[in-house]
Amino acid sequence: MASIAFPSHAKLLTLPNGLTYNYVSIPPTSPLPTILFIHGFPSSSWDWRHQISHFSQRGYGVLAPDLLGYGGTSKPTTLSPYRGKAMASDLVSILDAEKISKVHGVGHDFGCWLLSRLVNYHPERLYTSSFLSVPYLKPGGHFDADAINAMMVKLLGYEKYGYVKFFGQENAAALLKAHRESWFRLFYPHDPELWIEHMRPMGAIEKWVSSDHMAPLASFITEEERDMHHRIFQGDYEAPLRWYKSSMLGNCDEEEEKEAIAGGMSVKVDIPVLVIVEKGERGEMMDEGGLKELCQDVRVVRTSTTNHWVQLECRDEVKKFLREFLEGFKET
User: Fold this and answer.
1) Which residues contact 309 (CB under 8 A, 6 or more apart)?
2) pLDDT per residue over 35-57, tens digit each?
3) What whole-number distance in Å separates Cα of residue 229 and Cα of residue 307?
C-alpha cells in the first residue's frame, strides 16, 4: 500500500470511472522523464522500493501504483474491471491526472501482462517498455492451463501452472489468509527450486499451505520487509486473485483483444524493449527469435541468479540494466 510504505510520496486518486487508485508519485528533479513501475502478484508498489529510491535519487520521476485489487486501490468484486484494456486505461487516467504525456514503462510478473496491454492500446504514452521475468505478451491469445501443463510435462518433466488452477478455487483466498506465513515463505523462498515440487504441480500449493509448511525465507527479504508485506495485505488476497480468474482462467480479454486487432490494433511493438530474465529454466526457454519478430528493437539480458523476484534479489543488476537501457534511449 503506497500510503503505508511511502507515506510522504503517496497519492489517492479517484478516476473518471469511479475507481480509486493509491500510488507513489515522485516528480523528476531534472529534465529526465518519469518511470512507471507496474507490479505483479502478490506484490504492491512496495516491491519496487529499491528501484523507486535509486531512480528518484538520479532525477527521474517515479509513478508506482498499487494496481487494481491491491493495497489502497479499489477492489472490485466483479471480473470486468480487471480486463487488460480497462486497467491500461486506468493507468492512462493516472498519467493524465499527473499531467505526464509519456513514461518509461517497467513491469514485473503479472505487471508485464498489463504493460503489454498498455503498449497495445496506448503506445503513444510510452517511450520504452521493460519486462522483468516475463516477456512482452501479445494480445488475442487463449490460455489453457491444462494443455500447457501437459506440454510442460513433456518438455520439463513437471507441470508448471498448477498454482493457477488453485488460485481459481473458491477456497483459495481463505486458505492463503489462514496460512499467510506458510504461503509467503513458499512464494518468496530461499531456494527457488521449491516451486518445482510445491507450487507448480496440480494440488501442490494447496497441500503446502493446508499443512502450514514453513520454508526458510529468501535472503533478500528482511523480517521487517516481510512484516510490511503482511501489514499491507492483512492476509487478504481475494481481489488480487481476480486477475487470474479474469485474464487466465476466464480468458475475459480474448474476444475484446481479437476485435481490437481486427480493427487495426498492432500486436507488434515499435518502441524499444528490454527483457530482464533470471537465468535457468525461464532464461533458457526464452524465445528470443519470437520476441524479435514481435518487437522492432529488443534486448534480452539475464541476471546471475534463478529467483523470480529479480527486482528484489538482483536489485543492483536490475538497476544497472534499466539505467543503461534508459540512458541509451534516444527519442526519434
Assistant:
1) 47, 188, 218, 220
2) 999 999 999 999 999 999 999 99
3) 19
